[in-house]
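note to self: dont lose this again. the chain is below, predicted strucutre after it. 109 aa total, dont forget to put it in the shared folder this time
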Amino acid sequence: MVEREAADRLIGLDTRPWPHLVGQARAAAGAIGEPRALQDEDGLDRCPEAVPHVRRVCITAALALAGALEEQAAGPASQISKQIYAQAMVICEGFMGLAPLRTPWRAPD
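---
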């Protein structure tokens, strides 16, 4: 949702300020990264079959988006910050069975 809103902001369809969108991305990371849930996820290392650390990957994606949005607030976001976000988010979406979004935040400049 935050990525879509930020994409809309780039083309003038959303008027919320960049700091608001950064806060939304950080709030999402905080919700995903609830300490007890992360601790439970870490306990899955004991399973005989490999279990992916979905929360950790998705937190990385949310924080990478927040970083890219912070850069955008100061000027154009760097290609590397967008690439870091895109790579983490594709993995996160894959864990959840979602098709990757196509937005300017994931497209090469």
